[in-house]
Write a structure and sequence with these properties.
Shape: elongated
CATH architecture of the largest domain: Roll
Number of helices: 2
Structural class: mainly beta
Strand order of the largest sheet: 2-1-8-3
CATH topology of the largest domain: Chitinase A, domain 3
Number of domains: 2
Distance between the termini: 26 Å
Largest sheet: 4 strands, antiparallel
CATH class of the largest domain: Alpha Beta
Strand content: 35-45%
Order of helices and strands: EEHEEEEEEH
Helix content: under 10%
Number of strands: 8
Radius of gyration: 18 Å
Length: about 180
C-alpha cells in the first residue's frame, strides 16, 4: 500500500540539526496518522506515494518545522512564585503558571524552565527546536489504512512533532520523542 492522505505510517528515523548533532533517534517503528495532527506538513508531503521500505532524507527549515525563535515568549518571573524543587529543564503548562506571573504569558503554551536565579526564573514558551533547521532521515516501515476512530481524532496519539493546544485550551503532555 502506498502512502496517501488519511492512512497510518510506521516510521523509524534519525533527527539531526544542520551541524550533524543527533537530536533524536527512533529505532522502533511508531505509527503516525498522515492527514492528521501527528506529523509536520512538510513530512506528510514528502511521504505521499511512498511504500514500505522507502527511505527519505529531508532538510526542513525552521518556518516549516518548529518556527523561528520568538523572544516575545521569554518571561522573567519572580523565583518565589515557584516551588523550591523547581529545576532547569522542567516544563510547565501555561494553564498551570502560578498566580502573579506575567499576565501576557500565553496560557496555551508550554514553558521550559531555562534558567534559575536566586530572585528570578526564566521561562521559555518556544518549542525546544524553535529556530533550528532539522535533517530527518526516515524509513517507512509499514503502511495501513487508518481506522475511523483515528481519522475522527486526527491522530494515532503520537504527536511527536508538535506542541499543540487541545480544543479545551490545554497543551497535551506529549512533546518531542
Amino acid at each position: 500500500m502506498d502512502i496517501t492522505e488519511q492512512c497510518v505510517v510506521a516510521l523509524t528515523w534519525t533527527l539531526k540539526d544542520t551541524l550533524g548533532e543527533v537530536l533524536d533517534v527512533l529505532d522502533e517503528p511508531v505509527e503516525f496518522l498522515v492527514g492528521g495532527d501527528d506529523l509536520l506538513p512538510r513530512i506528510e508531503q514528502a511521504l505521499q506515494g511512498h511504500a514500505p521500505g522507502a527511505r527519505l532524507d529531508l532538510h526542513i527549515e525552521p518556518e516549516e518545522a518548529f518556527c523561528d525563535f520568538n523572544d516575545q515568549l521569554l518571561f522573567l518571573e519572580p523565583r518565589n512564585l515557584f516551588p523550591a524543587e523547581l529545576e532547569e529543564g522542567m516544563t510547565i503548562e501555561g494553564t498551570a503558571l502560578p498566580k502573579g506571573t506575567n499576565p501576557d504569558a500565553p496560557r496555551n503554551a508550554q514553558y521550559t524552565v531555562t534558567e534559575i536565579y536566586p530572585e528570578h526564573v526564566v521561562l521559555d514558551g518556544n518549542h525546544p527546536l524553535a529556530g533550528i533547521a532539522i535533517r530527518l532521515s526516515l524509513k517507512v516501515e509499514a503502511v495501513r489504512e487508518a481506522t475511523e476512530e483515528e481519522i475522527g481524532r486526527g491522530t494515532c496519539g503520537t504527536g511527536f512533532f508538535r506542541i499543540d493546544v487541545d480544543p479545551d485550551g490545554t497543551p497535551p503532555e506529549a512533546v518531542l520523542h
